[in-house]
Amino acid sequence: MTVSVTAGRTTRRSSATCAFRPCVRGSGCPVRRSSRADTSRSRPARYTEGSFIKLLEEKGIGRPSTFATIVSTITTRGYVKREGKALVPTQLGEVTNDIMLRNFATIVDEHFTARMENDLDGIEEGKESMEDVLSRFERL
Questions:
Q1: pTM of this prediction?
Q2: How far is 32 from 4, CA to CA, in rounded Å?
Q3: What is the distance between the alpha carbons of residues 91 and 82, in angstroms, rounded to a whole number?
Q4: Contact 87, 49 (CB under 8 A)
Q5: Does 17 have pLDDT greater than 60?
């Protein structure tokens, strides 16, 4: 049980439900200074179509010829919506992402995707056999 004194009134609260330690006048209660940045609730930074495509390029995912299709697919299927220039995940997108990460973490990993892109290029260029690439994929 936590007891706090405020303006002459005594309040009893369970310590499990009270996030603040009680202060008694003159006891030298600790004060944590915070900046505006600590207390403001700002939205997470959002990708624009351009910054999302740049990220895909940096990660080695997709090709210039597929970037527009990727963005079109995630918007058409309702995984993201446009708010101004920003691509904002929808509830469907967040739930789908959570399910995919929980059940197919290896396959939706950005490193796996980039590696698969390289393997498929290797098949196309005759440097890899389709059987070898599929065999490695099957062992996941």
A1: 0.61
A2: 18
A3: 14
A4: yes
A5: no
